[in-house]
Design a protein that fits this description.
Blueprint: E1 13-16, H1 26-32, E2 36-39, H2 42-52, H3 55-58, H4 69-78, H5 85-96, H6 100-105, E3 111-114, E4 117-120, E5 130-131, E6 134-135, H7 140-143, H8 145-155, H9 157-163, H10 165-178, H11 181-191, E7 198-204, E8 212-218, E9 221-229, H12 239-254, H13 256-265, H14 267-273, H15 294-314, H16 319-336, H17 341-354, H18 364-372
Parallel strand pairs: 1-8, 2-7, 7-9
Antiparallel strand pairs: 3-4, 5-6, 8-9
Length: 374
């Protein structure tokens, strides 16, 4: 039986980036201004594969996608190397703290791989330095650089990665065709005061429930990174419902970066308004401990609530689809322990309908007041 170690917690994580951990030089800014890109990053794929073949990884299909031909190809090529010392070390780290997955994969862009040698990046220094309440000072890829290089060489990772290029290109083209990133980006920039310079999506067919996002601000340039599963087309869903499902996975990563900025302005009011956590979260549900105060609880409600506002506009006129979207969002959030999602969504929609010309930032005072009266 698979260990559903992260099932509740893994629906959404965000890490906070310190400005000194990246170095956005002028050339980088010029190349990326106004652009969104999708990438199956080589070093990230190497690290995900290494983590996936640990005993921990093999027993956690909520963290690693274990359906499909690609996973079988990975196992066929790499499982024979699962007893290598670096894999055993990664396994022990994951057993102590599953967030090590993010500290490895979230720092993958700090290196490129050339002739089985990891070459340091001049742009990314230590982007994933904090997740929830856990902070690191040293890049684990740097710590285990020699061992990771040895694994890449011994397992002929580069040959495998090159042989899968057609598959990776299809993943990227599916994102570009079906993710509607530009539509989401435009909507959020129109409806919030926050502005973002560039987006990058890192994806892999091995990513399942553990998705995360990070924001990087340096040298007057703001880049958003998202680490997400591949585009999904689930059986039993209509084409529009699949579109909405894939949109939600991305949107609820993107809008963290818009929702949180006005929340900071009202942090003390939020902590006061939602001080009785048991009214807002089922504290017995695993994962809710990562939202210890009113500020973080509100942000999580707002992240999914704003997706509902987006859906109400984008899918306007399709009452059936909108009902499906509302029901699914409410059910997912309640399952995660956010027990007042339905009421929160209804109040947010009411405020939006009364103030259609206002930025969503401007709805916060009334919404916070409503929260305080619950």
């Amino acid at each position: 039986m698979k260990t559903k170690f992260l099932s509740a917690f893994a629906l959404l994580l965000s890490f906070t980036i310190s400005a000194q951990k990246v170095n956005f030089m002028e050339e980088f800014k010029k190349e990326n201004q106004g652009k969104s890109t999708v990438e199956v990053n080589e070093v990230k794929e190497l690290l995900i594969i290494m983590l996936a073949i640990t005993d921990f990884g093999l027993e956690n299909d909520d963290m690693f996608e274990q359906k499909g031909d690609y996973y079988q190809r990975v196992l066929k090529h790499f499982k024979t190397y699962k007893d290598e010392p670096i894999i055993k070390k990664m396994d022990s780290l994951l057993m102590k703290n599953p967030l090590e997955y993010i500290f490895f994969t979230g720092n993958a862009q700090t290196y490129t791989l050339k002739n089985d040698i990891l070459i340091p990046s001049k742009i990314y220094i230590l982007p994933a330095d904090k997740v929830a309440n856990v902070k690191i000072e040293i890049n684990p890829i740097t710590t285990y650089k020699t061992e990771i290089e040895a694994f890449a060489k011994k397992s002929h990772f580069t040959d495998f990665y090159k042989s899968e290029k057609t598959f990776y290109n299809k993943i990227i083209s599916d994102y570009e065709q079906f993710s509607n990133l530009r539509r989401q980006w435009n909507w959020l920039e129109k409806n919030f005061e926050q502005k973002i310079n560039s987006y990058i999506v890192y994806t892999s067919a091995l990513i399942n429930g553990l998705n995360y996002t990070g924001g990087y601000e340096n040298n007057n340039f703001h880049l958003i990174e998202m680490v997400l599963p591949t585009i999904q087309k689930e059986q039993g869903r209509s084409e529009k419902n699949n579109d909405a499902f894939n949109t939600r996975s991305m949107f609820t990563e993107i809008d963290h970066n818009y929702v949180e900025k006005p929340s900071v302005k009202y942090k003390s009011e939020l902590n006061s308004a939602l001080k009785d956590r048991e009214k807002w979260v089922n504290t017995k549900t695993y994962g809710t401990e990562y939202y210890p105060d009113g500020f973080k609880v509100f942000n999580e409600y707002m992240t999914y609530g704003v997706f509902i506002l987006y859906a109400e506009e984008i899918y306007k006129g399709d009452a059936k689809l909108l009902q499906e979207i509302n029901n699914e969002v409410n059910a997912v959030m309640v399952e995660r322990g956010f027990i007042k999602m339905k009421e929160f969504n209804e109040e947010l929609k009411n405020l939006r309908n009364k103030n259609k010309k206002k930025k969503i930032d401007q709805l916060y005072p009334e919404l916070i007041n409503w929260c305080s009266l619950q």
